[in-house]
Amino acid sequence: MRPSASTATDSEMATKRRMLAERLASAGVVDEALWESLKVELAPISETYLRKLVRHGGHPMTALVEGVNLSTLEDAARTLQKLALEYEASEPARRKRCRALVLEAKQKLRWAGARGDAEMLLWVSTWLENPAVFPSWIAVYRRRNENPMSLP
């Protein structure tokens, strides 16, 4: 009896998870060079799925590897702030990559629409308007929402 297509897929995913765990066992932060080699070694694999595996493995990633994590408001704020810092410290080509990651997150949020992600969509839109201001803006925004009477 031949295994079903879903069984083969499950087996392939388990193999990729195992290969990734072995490859990252001695790695520190997953930087762009390591990321590119992982994509080649584990091909075919989507960046979204690979990012999910790395994240669930608890491995730290650089800003351009992690992208915008939309799992929670805390993760979104943290990763948008990391990308804002990367953006400010980078040359035009890296800035373009930062911006592309935030635009991708904005598209995902728009497609999700009814999930109640309006707050994250506001954050991403604000980042796109002015990445340099975002870290200060998010701090004020969060303080205001924690205590609405504290700011005008």
| Radius of gyration computed on alpha carbons | 18 Å
Q: What is the overall pLDDT average?
A: 88
Number of H/I helices: 8
Number of domains: 2
- Shape, principal axes of CA atoms: globular
Q: What structural class do you assign from the helix and strand content?
A: mainly alpha
Q: What percent of residues adopt helix (DSSP H or I)?
A: over 70%
Mind describing the biggest β-sheet?
none
Secondary structure tally: strands = 0
Instruction: Determine the oligomeric state from the structure.
Output: single chain
What letter string, H or E per element, gives the SSE order? HHHHHHHH
Termini separation comes to 70 Å
Strand content: under 5%
Runs in which pLDDT lies below 50 for 5 or more consecutive residues are 1-8
Q: What's the structural blueprint in terms of helices and strands?
A:
Elements: H1 5-24, H2 32-41, H3 47-56, H4 63-66, H5 73-89, H6 92-112, H7 118-129, H8 134-146
Helix pairs in contact: 5-6, 5-7, 6-7
Walk me through the structure.
It is a single chain. This protein folds into two domains: 1-61, no CATH class; 68-152, no CATH class. The longest helix is centred in the last third of the chain and has 21 residues, at 92-112. The protein contains eight helices and no strands. The protein is an all-alpha fold. The protein is 70% helix and 0% strand.
Structure, briefly:
This protein has 152 residues and is mainly alpha-helical. The chain has helices at 5-24, 32-41, 47-56, 63-66, 73-89, 92-112, 118-129, 134-146. It is built from eight helices and no strands.
